[in-house]
Design brief:
The complex is a heterodimer. Chain A is α/β, with parallel strands linked by helices. Chain A has 19 helices and 15 strands. Chain A folds into three domains: 223 residues, NADH-ubiquinone oxidoreductase 51kDa subunit (Rossmann fold, 3-Layer(aba) Sandwich); 107 residues, Ubiquitin-like (UB roll), CATH 3.10.20.600; 112 residues, Up-down Bundle (de novo design (two linked rop proteins)), CATH 1.20.1440.230. Helix content of chain B is 22%, strand content 19%. Chain B is elongated and about 95 Å long. The chains are: A alpha/beta, B alpha+beta.
């Protein structure tokens, strides 16, 4: 029977657990930090010495921790790219701009256990010789910002932050910065621009890789809230031990945000890859199944930008069984919920937000909703995304307001194909086009049928569907 | 040009490592580092390698003299790099060539550095499809109002539409509407619907002009270029944004709706508004000038020029231009006037003549006057003309040919030092003949503080003590000018001259760069290029001849003036040659 594995959320939901520092300390808080600050350089057999910082970074590398923000990039590798010889300060930014539709995991941590995040951040900062760090929190989370500021003040009062932390000689300050309400600020270079007080236009890479030319053109680490919390547990249990959680190359736990048409929507922490999508939806420990009398239609497995999975879809997964590589055909419900299996299924676990849709859903309406979000949030810096996202949204608005055409499915597909695959400055291009590509490809009948119905209705009402004048008259702007 | 005394004062660049890359199968060797917009050496990019291979990569936002933005995505190319084995050593093909690992994702050529052995593919179906996609995206919300757009004919959207456009649009939605005819500043209009948001204008004014005046408001497809509310876009370089705007979004209030660009003739010339000597193109049609635009010359102005200089052409078409040769106030002819003047000058006793020639005259004209000066034993000078300068292009010296006046011996290190001597000479009755070229001596000096901040063409002419009363004491006052003046009113002989747009010649700029300019339009009425009639006059007076054409005249002058030794008219080329000043 699959069940939750509570590592990050071990205490958060316990009755009586409060976000203040006393409660955190009572539950063993900041002990890991004390341990890390007391670490000694390690003498290696070859006569070299390994600083405590290097030891900590090694543990994170060993842990196999992958970023929890969306891309699933190795945290240890990301840290290894940091330019430590530039002579410039190194900055760390906690990305708390949790905005991907369907995702509500980071806010649980921030609201219920902010000190865990702060301890994870101090450890990560210490490991990377960071003296100044920022928490960039979504503007729409005012309560979270308040809680974090309170927690930081508490930590400062106990000399867990500030000058000479706990007598170790290490200085660190952390500031909270509130966003102003833009999804693009979750993109790390857009976030950096925003933090610098500019318009959050993602930077071009090359040359502006944050690890070399990040905040104020200094080496910068940007990590997700959950990722930074994991660092605390990696330091506590050791990288090798942490790597035993989850499955190979998909280590540790993840907090899954489950929403949509299940009986028990909510957040669930699981060992990565130990639970399947089907179990997350149907198991009484998790979603508890669909609403009565309903059938599954589709699942978006990683936040609204992930490609949709259609009920009944089958995938060929390469897996290791008894040490041998075998290819197995699995139903979408039997996909283990991890980074690699979902990639093999042509989608992604993204921000680990599962959106479940049953057969009551009008799939065209659902896509129109997603598309409108991305059209609204495109920063407009680069051409394909700026123009393509609104174009798709307008077409879908038309299709959901009785002005559709049979050809709109192909039309949408062609627009969407012009955006992703490295044509845009940042991954937003993929984020806005993948839903359209996947919805239209997998539910093409419904798109065509809707367009055909609209055409038939217009023909009945005597309006020519194809004259340019009619098109202009009928077209409704998406805004 | 090995014989020419060029003193291009650029230090020898340090040897830069060269690396080999392939562009569409063609191997080129390019420096590993190249100068960026500010001249700093940075890794050479794919677009520069493609340029070295003479392969055109279409682009909108990239501009070699601006920081890279990478936003238009028109320059996306495919590429590959030598494949590395697990031992980090290159993997070889059976034929011994390095195996190339093609990148699964394209890259923007404008920002991606090259690496040894890199192969860049600009002609693959995928690249073509990406360019088509970008162009389609740029056009869906564009108003497609080419028939009434000033940019038509020099528009990158039109240009690339020929290469990558579709004959019919598949876009059936309502277009995004944005503000039109937005008054951005005193000289610039914005049509936000035509804008493709390449941000060239923003980067120019922020990073080149040093005035962070423009930005983007709103989001996504609704993005719009804007100034801060209530802060007009008004610096002395705003019109450069019109030049670099790849589409018809930014237009010059001066030029918009005046003329279709394809009717304009472009003539290579030099700006005369200050000593910098920015290289320009004069756009004219049927003897009328419509605009000046900067002509790229990295030794002088790069691709830029100031607004004041750019708009300083209207006086050329003033109705009250001097068009007639006047002898004692009566309309006459060149033959009569020049013969009379020659006869008069031949009889002038040595030391009784003075020449005041403007440093707005060309090298050739000033040199001819210096010949006359030698013959007459005359005292000479030019009138200093100063105003506001800046750290970019505008010089405090408002004469375009100060160095030319010095090198030809008309004026001296301290220009204007002889003017009071000339005044005193006239007052004492020693100087009886005065030849004035291009100066109104009776224009009174203006207090520098009285000049308005923004008026960078405003100039202060040094007070020199030559008054109408003094001019009245002269036996002979010969004046050549372009516009009517109080001095010309008192002259016995008025010889109508030409604006630089109406003649050929050279100026020597503040750095000693000798730059030639060509004739764009015909002079009005009887006006003649000064060098042309001065040649006749000098021949009549001195008997010297041999330079009937501007080329011959220049070459003759180059032999005679030490600083110009070795120069030839042809050798000056389009960008000029620097001499020691």
């Amino acid at each position: 029977m699959p069940s939750e594995y509570k590592l990050i959320l071990k205490h958060a939901d316990q009755p009586g657990y409060t976000p203040d520092i006393e409660c955190y300390l009572k539950h063993g808080g900041y002990e890991v930090l004390k341990k890390a600050l007391a670490m000694q350089p390690l003498d290696l057999p070859d006569g070299k010495r390994k600083s405590p910082q290097e030891q900590l970074r090694d543990e994170v590398m060993k842990s196999g921790l992958r970023g929890r923000g969306g891309a699933g990039f190795s945290c240890g590798l990301k840290w290894s790219f940091v330019d430590r010889r530039s002579g410039k300060p190194i900055y760390l930014i906690c990305n708390a701009d949790e905005s991907e539709p369907g995702t509500f995991k980071d806010r649980q941590i921030i609201h219920k256990d902010p000190h865990q995040l702060i301890e994870g951040m101090i450890l990560s900062c210490f490991a990377n010789d960071v003296k100044l760090a920022y928490i960039y929190i979504r503007g729409e989370m005012p309560q979270g910002a308040k809680l974090l500021n309170k927690a930081l003040a508490e930590a400062r009062a106990k000399n867990l932050l500030g000058k000479n932390i706990l007598g170790s000689g290490y200085d660190l300050e952390i500031h909270v910065h509130r966003g102003a309400g833009a999804y693009i600020c979750g993109e790390e270079t857009g976030l950096i621009e925003s933090l610098e007080g500019k318009r959050p236009y993602p930077r071009i890479k090359p040359p502006y890789f944050p690890a070399v030319l990040g905040l104020y053109m200094c080496p910068t680490i940007v990590n997700n809230v959950e990722t930074l919390c994991n660092v605390k547990h990696i330091v506590a249990m050791g990288g090798a031990e942490f790597a035993k959680l989850g499955t190979p190359n998909n280590t540790g736990t993840r907090i899954v945000s489950l929403s949509g048409h299940v009986k028990r929507p909510g957040y669930y922490e699981i060992e990565v890859g130990k639970v399947t999508i089907g179990e997350l939806i149907n198991d009484p420990n998790f979603g508890g199944g669909l609403r009565d009398g309903r059938k599954l239609k589709a699942v978006i497995p990683g936040g609204s930008s992930a490609k949709v999975l259609k009920a009944g879809e089958k995938f060929k997964l390469k897996r290791k069984v008894d040490g041998k590589d075998v290819e197995q055909e699995v139903d979408m419900l039997d996909l283990p919920y991890d980074f690699d299996s979902l990639l093999q299924a042509g989608t992604m676990s993204g921000s680990s937000a599962i959106i479940v849709m049953d057969d009551s859903v009008d799939i065209v309406e659902a896509l129109a909703n997603i598309s409108e979000f991305y059209a609204h949030e495109s920063c407009g810096q680069c051409t394909p995304c700026r123009e393509g996202s609104l174009w798709m949204s307008k077409a879908l608005h038309r299709l959901t307001h009785g002005e559709g055409r049979k050809t709109d499915a192909d039309y949408l597909e062609k627009i969407a194909n012009n955006i992703p695959g490295g044509r845009t400055i940042c991954a937003f291009g993929e984020a806005c086009s993948w839903p359209v590509q996947s919805f239209v490809a997998k539910f093409k009948d419904e798109f065509v049928a809707k367009g055909a119905a609209d055409e038939a209705k217009r023909a009945q009402n005597g309006v020519a569907s194809n004259s340019a004048a009619a098109k202009r008259r009928e077209t409704v702007a998406a805004h | 040009m090995s014989t020419a005394p060029t003193t291009e004062s650029k230090p020898a660049p340090p040897a830069i490592e060269k690396i080999k890359v392939k562009v569409d199968g063609r191997e080129v060797e390019v420096p590993k580092l190249s100068p960026d917009h500010a001249g700093k050496l940075v890794p050479t990019t794919m677009i520069q390698a493609c340029e070295a291979a003479r392969t055109d990569v279409p682009h909108y936002c990239y501009h070699p003299k601006l920081p890279v933005a990478g936003n238009c995505r028109m320059c996306l190319v495919e590429f590959g790099t030598p494949a590395l084995g697990p031992d980090r050593k290159p993997v070889m093909n059976p034929d011994g060539t390095p195996k190339i690992a093609k990148s699964p994702r394209p890259a923007i050529a404008c920002a991606t550095p090259i690496s040894p052995g890199m192969e860049i593919y600009t002609k693959t179906p995928a690249v073509k499809q990406m360019r088509e996609g970008v162009l389609e995206s740029l056009l869906i919300n564009h108003p497609l109002d080419c028939p009434i757009c000033d940019q038509a004919g020099e528009c990158k959207l039109q240009e690339y539409s020929v290469d990558y456009g579709q004959s019919a649009s598949r876009f059936v939605e309502a277009k995004v509407h944005k503000p039109k005819a937005v008054d951005l500043g005193p000289r610039i209009m914005l049509d936000a619907e035509r804008c493709i948001l390449c941000t060239r204008c923003i980067r120019f004014t922020r990073d080149v002009a040093g005035d962070d005046a423009l930005g983007i408001i709103n989001r996504g497809s609704y993005n719009t270029i804007s100034t801060y509310p209530g802060m007009p876009f008004d610096n002395n370089y705003t019109l450069n944004t019109v030049d670099i705007c790849p589409v018809g979004a930014l237009t010059s209030k001066d030029f918009r709706f005046q003329m279709r660009v394809w009717f304009l003739k472009e003539t290579k010339s030099v700006c005369t508004s200050c000593a910098t000597g920015c290289n320009i193109l004069i756009s004219s049609r049927e003897e009328k000038i419509y605009r000046y635009t900067p002509r790229e010359n990295d030794g002088v102005n790069g691709p830029w020029m100031c607004d004041a200089g750019r708009l300083n052409y209207k006086w050329i078409h003033r109705d009250d231009r001097l068009k007639d040769v006047l002898v004692r106030g009566q309309k006459s002819s060149w033959t009569v006037a020049l013969n009379e003047i020659a006869e008069t000058l031949k009889r002038v006793p040595p030391g009784s003549a003075a020449i005041i020639a403007s440093a707005r005259q060309t090298n050739e004209e000033l040199w001819l006057l210096s010949k006359l000066k030698a013959k007459l034993g005359a005292i000479s000078d030019s009138v200093p003309r100063t105003g506001k300068g800046d750290n970019l292009l505008v010089d405090e010296d408002k004469n375009p040919n100060t160095n030319g006046a010095r090198l030809t011996g008309i004026s001296f290190t301290e220009m204007g030092i002889n003017l009071s001597k000339i005044a005193a000479g006239i007052a004492r009755g020693e100087i009886k003949t005065l030849i004035v070229f291009g100066e109104d001596l009776l224009k009174r000096a203006v207090d520098a503080k009285a000049l308005r901040e923004k008026e960078l063409t405003s100039e202060v002419v040094t007070e020199h003590g030559i008054t109408a009363e003094l001019l009245g004491k002269l036996d002979t006052l010969i004046v050549s000018d372009i516009l009517p003046s109080a001095t010309a009113k008192l002259a016995h002989y008025v010889l109508p001259g030409c604006a630089h747009a109406e003649k050929r010649g050279t100026f020597t700029n503040r750095d000693g760069r000798v730059q030639r300019f060509m004739q764009a339009i015909q002079p009005p009425g009887d006006a003649r290029p000064e060098w042309d009639f001065l040649h006749d006059l000098v021949y009549n007076v001195t008997g010297k001849n041999g330079f009937l054409t501007i080329e011959g005249l220049f070459n003759e002058m180059a032999k005679d003036v030490p600083a110009f030794n070795g120069l030839t008219w042809a050798g000056l080329g389009d960008i000029g040659v620097t001499v020691k000043v």
